[in-house]
Amino acid sequence: MSIHISVRWAGECKLLRDPTDSYGQRLIITTLGDYGSLVHNPIPSSSLVRVMEEFDLSSGSCRSALSRLVRAGYLDRVTRGRTTAYQLSLHGESLVREGRERIVKFGTPKVWDGRWSLVVFSVAENKRHVRHVVRTRLRELGFAPFFDGTWIAANSDIEEVTRNLNEIEHAEIAIFDGELKNSYISILEKARKNWKLDNVSDRYIEFIDAFTPIFEKLKSNKILPEEAFVTRTRLMDEWRVFPRIDPELPDEIVPVDWPRPRARRLFDQLYEMLRPSAEVGFTQILDRES
């Protein structure tokens, strides 16, 4: 394999941890990001507990998730007398904004120029846990393992890759951008296997099968506001997984009849169609608690 190379070295900075690995934390961030603007004041913890009960999250789990989000800097805790309330912090608002931007861009048609991004990294033996951090971040950026310590991606945003990898300390990372010059077919087969495209396709089909009936129900006006709120929040929670597991490979690489476009259309339609009723449902749940 020969490539035209431009090299960028990733420096050593503190890694920002993503809070969305926890179900409760994900739901809270999604809820406050989508509906927090409907409420002009911090939301009391008792009200947030009630909202989370709609997702079968217990009071204890909700309060634990709130505390962890505060400690991580994603929420601000406000105390007024005997009432404790929460709102997104500036850092939390940034997280929501970046997440929305990523979701808006994810799955939109792109023209591939045939170039590949290559990342080579090395981690000291006494910092082996950092390897997991690097690999996790690379998968989120659409990379797959190519050879030992070498990961490859097509159609990646080099600036975004560099910015994200710069957040990792205790790792030497080189980023290359270039063209593949040999063994094209065999390397594509290896890449498809390493990206686990069959598993990704199955997840898309599951998403389509789960939410298509909701689309039909919506067209018949058979969804009440509180159900719309829960459904729309779960829709976002399910969809936000795909930018992590789908590397957005070009059409030249993905299998025929790749299900992402169908899933993306369904998500876009449902998310907007559910919005008005879901906003009413959210405020109804809060009013029920007051």
Brief overview:
It is built from eleven helices and eight strands. It has 290 residues and is α+β, with helices and mostly antiparallel strands. The protein has three domains: 7-16 and 110-194, 2-Layer Sandwich (Alpha-Beta Plaits), CATH 3.30.70; 19-96, Winged helix-like DNA-binding domain superfamily/Winged helix DNA-binding domain (Arc Repressor Mutant, subunit A, Orthogonal Bundle); 196-289, no CATH class.
Written overview of the protein:
This protein is α+β, with helices and mostly antiparallel strands and 290 residues long. The protein folds into 3 domains: 7-16 and 110-194, 2-Layer Sandwich (Alpha-Beta Plaits), CATH 3.30.70; 19-96, Orthogonal Bundle (Arc Repressor Mutant, subunit A); 196-289, no CATH class. The protein has helices spanning 23-35, 45-53, 59-71, 90-105, 129-140, 158-165, 184-194, 197-219, 225-239, 242-245, 260-289; strands spanning 7-10, 43-44, 75-80, 83-88, 115-122, 144-147, 150-154, 172-179. Strands 1-8-5-7-6 form a 5-stranded antiparallel beta sheet. The chain has a 3-stranded antiparallel beta sheet with strand order 2-4-3. A hairpin with a 2-residue loop joins strand 6 (144-147) and strand 7 (150-154). Helix 2 (45-53) crosses helix 3 (59-71), helix 8 (197-219) packs across helix 11 (260-289) and helix 9 crosses helix 11 (260-289). The longest helix has 30 residues, at 260-289.
Name some characteristics of this structure.
single chain, Alpha-Beta Plaits, about 290 residues, 5-stranded antiparallel β-sheet, alpha+beta, disordered N terminus, Arc Repressor Mutant, subunit A, about 15% strand, 8 strands
